Amino acid sequence: MDDEVLSLSHRGHFAEDTTSSTYRLKRWGFEVGIHLMMGLPGDSRDLFLKSIDRVIDLRPDFVRIHPALVLRGAPLETLWKEGRYSPLSLGEVVGWLKKGILKLERASIRVARIGLQPTQKLEEDCLAGPYHPALHQLVDSAIAFDMAAHLLRTYPNGSQALLLCNPKEVSNVRGQRNENISRLKEKFELNEILVQGKDPVPRGTLILKNIEGEIAIRREELSI
Fold first, then answer.
1. How many Cβ atoms from other residues are within 10 Å of residue 222's Cβ?
2. Cα(145)–Cα(9) distance, rounded to whole angstroms?
3. Residues 6 or more apart from 108 whose CB is under 8 A from it?
4. Which among 220, 188, 223 has a CA at the least distance from the CA of 204?
5. Domains of the chain: which residue ranges?
């Protein structure tokens, strides 16, 4: 949704084209989804978040987002080989998406997909860039880490902590290979962090249980 980024990437359209097309499609009764690609030439985190804001103003029915990758045979391969394009790192992508996804969720816009559908051909042709087959989970885990850190920072609980979440979100709270647990233990000097899935806990909510009771935080309460 930034004209300079679109021009540098030779996308063949401008932001106003997306705006007018969306309005016309919605007026004619179509369900409208907007597909955003982040990390194109000239892009930045601020520009990406501004694009998210402009998309929210359009009120699409859903959004899909994936980072730009350098694929074999694509024009971007030439720019990359000549040193004129550097793809985002995986850490940058997760950081950008964490903020963007929370913006969309607060606006009640459904995020249908994050990242590209993993295929053998994609993995063979991806020469550079932040490709990950479980990008959505990485973003959800990063958000869960921030939620846990907020609870542990605000309500310190000795050398141990018990976190409660929806059973379907235990893996997000723990992080891939228990990375969240390791980082939280180091950050807050804890000996043990337990994560339990409880059916009454709604999705998107994390609870810290201590001797004083239970303290909860919801995804939408995180600062962006």
1. 16
2. 34
3. none
4. 220
5. 3-133, 144-221
pLDDT at 145: 97
Please report the pLDDT score of residue 154 as a whole number. Answer: 86
> Is 16 strand, coil or helix?
helix
pLDDT recorded at residue 212? 75
Residues 112 and 150: beta-carbon distance below 8 Å: no
Supply φ then ψ for residue 38, to 5 degrees: -105, 150
Give the pLDDT band of residue 223 (cuts 50, 70, 90).
confident
Of 173, 147, 148, nearest to 161 by C-alpha is 148
pTM: 0.92
Q: What is the DSSP letter of 194?
A: E
Percent helix, percent strand, percent coil in the chain, to nearest 5: 50, 20, 30
C-alpha to C-alpha distance for 153 and 215, rounded to whole angstroms:
12
Domain 144-221 falls under CATH 2.60.40: no
Calculate the alpha carbon distances from 47 to 76, 85, 98 in Å: 20, 17, 15
76 secondary structure, DSSP code: H
User: Regarding predicted confidence, which is higher, 117 or 57?
Assistant: 57
